[in-house]
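User: I'm putting together notes for a lab meeting next week and I want to include a structural view of one of the chains we've been expressing. I don't have a solved structure, so I'd like a prediction I can at least talk through. The sequence is below, exactly as it appears in our construct file.
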Amino acid sequence: MIGSIPMLRGLAGFNRDWLRRDIPAGLSIAAVGLPSAIAYPAIAGLPPETGIYASIVAPIAYAIFGPSRLLVVGPDAATMTVLAAAMGTIVAAYPAGTPVDRVGIAAALALGVGLCCIAAKLLRLGVLASFLSRPILVGFFAGVSLSILVGQIGRFTGVKIESDGLVPPLVEIAGKSGLIHWPSLLLGLLMFALLWLVRAFQLKIPGPVLVVVLSVVLSAVFDFQGRGIAVVGDIPSGLPNFSLPPLHQMPLDKIILGSAAIFLVSFGAGIVAARSFGSRTGEEVDANQELIGLGAANIAPGLFGSFPISVSDSRTAINLSTGGVSQAAGLVSAATLIAALVFLHSALRILPIPALAAILAMAAISLIDVHELSKIWRISRMEFIFALIAMWGAISFGVLNGVIVAVAATLVYLLRQTMFPRDGLLGRIEGRHGFFDLARYPEARPIDGAAVFAVQGSILFYNADYIRNRLTSVARNLAPETRCLVLDASAITHIDSTGATALEAVADILARRNITFSIADLSEESRGILSRAGVITTIGPENIFNGREEALRALIGNYDRAGTASAGRTV
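Assistant: Thanks for the context. Below is the predicted structure for the 571-residue chain, given as structure tokens.
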């Protein structure tokens, strides 16, 4: 450990016996990861070797700097889709006819994402992982999955699709039906059906591995390339080279914005995945420390001609299911992919593109979490609506703008939750301690000569009018014999200047009715705000109390702890 930076924590306490479990786990991770490593770059229009490079250097970097023993990083379908959208915006900024280095742009974005992670760590912004709520992420990924599915139309059919969005490509392929290469479509559909069967029958061999092996064998036997079926083509057999992307030739403002968008989605989704796996293994996930590991795991691909990565659900699941115990499994996976790059590049070059389209289509479908959407529907209709808004944003405005819609939906959701805080008049139940909401407990009775009103939330500029109106409405409906209204501030975490003005207005209304306004259990921070705003002077310092009981004893002399005034009880 160097300062607060984790070093080799995922390999701490390593001993040789671990290799008996980490080597098989690493081989399994490589077997599952190779097909996606080749397929996913196509989403962003990148050559297949960039996915293999990312799958090699990112796990090595994470093994050195990552805090988790079991998480595996690598290419991720959702991150690739956001990357594709960011790259599209950047490429569009180049003058027409200017050569565009797409790999260089992807590497620059990877460096940007890594630097965002490091900056967020320094500012202790691990809380950003929770910024996109689970319903928002589920909806957003459902929209992303539909974008990925539509993006495979050209690879399935062999037809070049010019349009973007959800519906236009469908209309375009309908108009170009005469150009469909039917052998390509048939192969793609057969490979997709094979993937579906493997999942349905839960076979032990991973579906993508089976598809890659089978399609390569068929391609060699039947000469798919000679029959017009597109194949991957040449893949460099050497190791990735260290190089810096040509940042001076790129629109840096769009690189920065694109990096921030990719960071927000990949980190948010990555931490959700990490916590999900952590709950199974008992490994605690520290979002701030994960920022270091994910930062290093993104900077490494940026320095070796690749693209941004995130926590990989599929690879981590394989690591857990095969008994991996440390980051040695990730290192074994990287070594295996290096061997594949060196020795299997001839076989990989004849891998048919429709087979990769089938793998991407199945990966996209896996992003649609129908079970989670139905669960959200059962729990909260409002959260389900926000999930649909996030999905609609990714579909209608494109993935990059969909990130903005998802963030905006999150902000609206948060505001909606805090604009109308829960409140109510409190009373007592004879023979029981404490105060009870009169609306929720029919047996509760108000206190003679007093009203106790609780607000469960902050009083800020955007809800101050609502709180003022609620208190004013209560004040106007108080019984004539009421001598005081006690605001229970125990659940009020913050009051700003607008909130202070609202409370002062309530105090003036009550004063005109000769009713004392008092506040109980006020936090020190809120007390300072009200003091500097002059509200405490208006109310009177003697009417600020440490608790409700103290306030009632001071304001109505005949109050007793049984919950009533000795003179009787108001029904």
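A couple of points you could mention at the meeting. The radius of gyration is 30 Å. The chain has 23 helices and eight strands.

User: Perfect, that's what I needed.
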